[in-house]
Design a protein that fits this description.
single chain, 341 residues, alpha+beta, Arc Repressor Mutant, subunit A, 48% helix, globular
Length: 341
């Protein structure tokens, strides 16, 4: 089928779907009802678009939606997702998705595919603010196909790899993406019509697609290997290793355990990790722990000793020494400065 004809067919399908499911309306903020205890905590942007896997609802018949939640503990086990982007405005939320460990940090996005089972829990005792952007499958895949240059690129999309059901994690978001996400958050208190909401979602998918494509291209260029397929596999394994470090930074992590997780030899993992990320796994973990401790110092009233433990340090003195090495001030002085700012 010619690309132009295919694009028109997708738009026609979406138009039919909108007539059937999406009646012209101004979306209103409601509290989710008739769901499990986890889903009932979320505020939903639009009515009749609520999906709770515990209630055997058909996610194929659900429209796009936006959910927001804030609290000091958000947890659930064995829940099934539809196509969603999950974003943290504040706090750290941990996910276990089909054996993979992921932690959403402020200004990072986690993408879950349709049908993926996950467990989630708040990473620390600090408050979290999370937003979930949920998609109707036809809308999401149709939009993804419109931005892909070819059928092959769609199947190897930098956002989702359907063949491996791999989760995708976005870090280092640019200004445009952060602004778009803040705009979506504003819809909670300032609703818009459905067509405006869909336009914002299309723009978000487009921006994320090209961001991930650009990041993958730069990453692949930094990996020394002759075969493109080998580069892709190495990138995938290194990304799993990096995400494992971030998601388990509160624990004592051995390089042997990471290599077991990613299926690489210790020498190969350390060498290629430094090639891709510019620092060794140890240095990357050290920086991630201090970044995490900065968030706790700024946004919680936890004692320094507790922050040290939550950041993966066995003693407050070891924590303070590394903090001063990287931030050039003590944790106590940093907190005082953050409070006075």
């Amino acid at each position: 089928m010619p690309k132009k004809t295919k694009m028109l067919a997708i738009k026609f399908m979406r138009a039919l779907l909108s007539i059937w499911l999406i009646h012209p309306k101004n979306v209103n903020l409601i509290l989710v009802t008739q769901t499990c205890s986890y889903c009932s905590k979320f505020h939903s942007l639009t009515e009749s678009n609520i999906y709770c896997s515990e209630h055997e609802q058909n996610e194929d018949l659900l429209d796009n939606n936006l959910f927001f939640i804030a609290g000091d503990r958000i947890a659930v086990n064995n829940h099934v997702s539809r196509f969603t982007f999950r974003y943290s405005f504040a706090g750290h939320q941990h996910f276990e998705i089909e054996g993979y460990q992921r932690t959403i940090q402020p200004n990072s996005i986690l993408f879950l595919e349709n049908g993926q089972t996950f467990n989630t829990d708040t990473f620390t005792g600090s408050n979290v603010e999370l937003m979930t952007v949920a998609f109707n499958p036809i809308f999401f895949l149709g939009t993804l196909e419109l931005v892909a240059n070819s059928h092959e690129e769609l199947l190897n999309s930098p956002i989702t790899d359907i063949s491996t059901r791999a989760t995708t994690y976005f870090q280092n978001l640019n200004y445009d993406l952060k602004y778009q996400l803040l705009e979506l958050k504003e819809l909670i208190s300032n609703p818009v019509f459905e067509d405006v909401f869909e336009t914002k979602l299309e723009s978000l998918i487009l921006e994320l697609f090209h961001l991930k494509k650009k990041q993958n291209k730069c990453a692949l260029q930094s990996i020394n290997s002759i075969k493109y397929s080998t580069k892709k596999e190495i990138l995938k394994r290194l990304t799993i290793g990096k995400d494992y470090l971030i998601s388990n930074l509160q624990y004592q992590i051995s390089i042997d355990r990471i290599c077991e997780e990613v299926g690489m030899s210790k020498y190969h993992f350390i060498r290629t990790f430094k090639m891709l990320f510019g620092v060794s796994p140890h240095q990357y973990l050290k920086r991630a722990r201090i970044n995490f401790s900065e968030e706790l110092l700024k946004n919680t009233k936890l004692e320094i000793a507790e922050i040290a433990t939550k950041s993966g340090y066995e003693s407050p003195s070891a924590f303070s020494r590394v903090f001063k090495e990287l931030i050039h001030t003590s944790p106590i002085a940093y907190r005082k400065l953050a409070i006075s700012a």
